[in-house]
Amino acid sequence: MEYRTIAAPVSASFVEKKSEFIAQLFPVRTQEDAVEAIENVRKQHRRARHNVYAYLLREGNASRYSDDGEPQGTAGMPILDVLQKNGLTDICCVVTRYFGGVLLGANGLVRAYSHSTALAIENAQVAHFGLGSLIHLLSGFHSDGLCPVRENRVPPAAGRYSPAGHDL
Questions:
Q1: CB-based contacts of 90: which residues, under 8 Å, 6+ apart?
Q2: b or e along 73-104 (b: 16 or more beta carbons within 10 Å of the residue's beta carbon)?
Q3: CA separation for the pair 41, 24 (Å, rounded)
Q4: What interhelical angle do 76-85 and 105-123 show, nearest 10?
């Protein structure tokens, strides 16, 4: 089974009607990793009006989002939608909004949070991964006629591997 995520943390920002939106993407493997990333962004942007997030995990097929004080359905869910439409998983996105004094309305908020997430994804290096499995390869014959078995162990979910099978 293959999946897509990002290779490294990345960010992007833009200004909409005097409000600054800063999207940060993080590769995560567990809910604890995602919560840690969210808390780190909150500490980094203590003065921000909103730190909205969404994350998707392969582990337990989990997804979570929060509007963090924005009107319901205008922030976290649009972020989650962009992540899903890009086929990404094991990813956390936190969008920080510094309010500029101009109300954007529900549709404006949806567009702004979606756009900031899409900008960050454009800046990201998307990585394709496959889960490894135990492989037995038969190779060569000894003079005694026996065929040795060479065993390459790549345990499932023990690490991240490129399509070529290299450990990442």
A1: 3, 5, 27, 28, 29, 56, 57, 58
A2: ebbbbbbbbbbeebebbbbbbbbbbbeeeeeb
A3: 8
A4: 40
Q: Which two tokens stand for residue 60?
A: 């337990």
Structure tokens at 44: 């980094």
Pair of tokens at residue 116: 């900031």
3-state DSSP percent of the chain in helix, strand and coil, to 5: 25, 35, 40
pTM (2 decimals)?
0.77
Kindly indicate the confidence band of residue 151, based on its pLDDT and cuts at 50, 70 and 90.
Answer: very low
Helix (H) or strand (E) run with residue 41 in it: helix 31-44
Task: Count how many residues are written for the chain.
Answer: 168
Summarize pLDDT for 23-69 with one digit per residue, the tens: 999 999 999 999 999 999 999 999 999 999 999 999 888 999 999 99
The reported pLDDT for the residue numbered 164 is: 47
